[in-house]
Every structure is written in C-alpha cells, then in structure tokens.
Amino acid sequence: MRQLLLEDLQAARRRDPAARTLVEVALAYPGVHALWVHRLAHRMWHANPLLRLPARLVSQLTRFLTGIEIHPAAVLGRRLFIDHGMGVVIGQTAVVGEDVVMFHGSTLGGVSMSHGKRHPTLGDRVMIGAGAKVLGPIVIGHDAKVGANAVVVKDVPADSVVLGVPGRVMNVTKDQAREFVDPAIYI
User: Fold this and answer.
1) Considering the entire predicted model, what is its pTM?
2) How far apart are CA 137 and CA 99, in angstroms?
3) Planar angle of CA 113, 141, 150, nearest 5 degrees
C-alpha cells in the first residue's frame, strides 16, 4: 500500500509542471487526496455489502472536501492523475486504465438509469480535457485524447483525438493533438 501511495505522488509530480515536491503534492493536491480516499472506499464497497453505505458516506465526504466525486465501485487504474480536480465526476460502473490524466470539470457519466454497465471504460494513457463529458457504456482506446469540453457518446479508437459537441474523431498527428488537448504547452 505504501508503494501505491508513493506511486500516486510521483505520478502527480511527473505530470504537473507546477508540482515542486512530493510533500507539496501530498499536502495540497485534491486529486491525490480523492484518489487515496477512493482506494479505501473501494475496498470497503467490495469487502462486505454492509460496508457499502459507509463507503458511500466516505466518498460523499471526500466530494465535499475536494470537489471530486468518485463512486466507491468505480475501478481506477494505477497512476491516475486528476489535475485541479474541482467538478470531476467518475460514475459507479466506470473503469479507468493506467496512467490516465483527467482535468477539472470532466465527467465519466451515464446516459441510462438502468442497472448494469452504464459508464465509460478508458484505456491506458488516456487524457480527458477540462470540462469534457464522456457518457455511456463506451470505450475510449489506449492513448486517446478527449479535448476540452468535448461530449463523447461513441467509442473512440486508440491513438485518436476527439473534439467537439458531439465528439468527433479528428485526423491529426500526435504533435497537432498536443495543441488541442495538452494544457502544458501554455505554460
């Protein structure tokens, strides 16, 4: 567990050029705090049906404190980095791959009130831009990038860039994709 927590700190420091030290990340990054508490709530959710209500209460307290709502049943891969975090929502049946980056205001949400899989599945190394909404039981392929404020309701192939409302896969090079999605170029 200690190794996993350190890995979360290192992922945030590596992905955020504003992060100066691991101590700063540990004390001042709500995305890291929400992720850590989610790990606890997720274990509670799966440990015993009697712990599901306490797991939900823990997740709601975390939402109140960080502005990030992650359902305890959501499956999150290693080294997820939630940058800034305010307004991020990750629904109950969402599955997030490894090394994913999500920016503030982004949503992995559902479009149905039925039981079963109703939230997105993200592959590894996916980037979800600020304000983007990824909705329904769709799959976002490995290394895909979803642009800021895009609304995605259909599957996205690996190594793609999705922009617009509704989200459309754009035929761009990886260098061009950085211009559309990666806020680090503005620093």
Assistant:
1) 0.87
2) 21
3) 60
The tokens describing 88, both together, are: 């991020």
CA of 128: how far to CAs of 6, 22, 53, in Å?
23, 24, 29
Tokens of 151: 């609304």
Amino acid at 155: D
In this predicted structure, what is the pLDDT of residue 184?
47
**Beta carbons of 93 and 75 less than 8 angstroms apart:** no
3-class state of residue 60 by DSSP: helix
Q: Closest Cα partner for 37 from 89, 11, 72, 7?
A: 72
The closest of 80, 89, 93 to 15, measured between CA atoms, is: 80
Supply the CATH number for residue 54's domain.
2.160.10.10
In the chain, the number of structural domains is 1
Amino acid code (one letter) for 5? L
- Token representation of residue 169: 């896969």
Instruction: Name the phi and psi angles at 58, rounded to 5.
Output: -60, -45
**Mean pLDDT over the full length of the chain:** 90
Mean pLDDT of 126-152: 95
Do residues 87 and 69 make contact, with C-beta atoms less than 8 angstroms apart? no
Q: Each residue of 37-64: pLDDT tens digit?
A: 999 999 999 999 999 999 999 999 999 9
Q: Can you give the residue range of the structural domain that contains 122?
A: 2-186
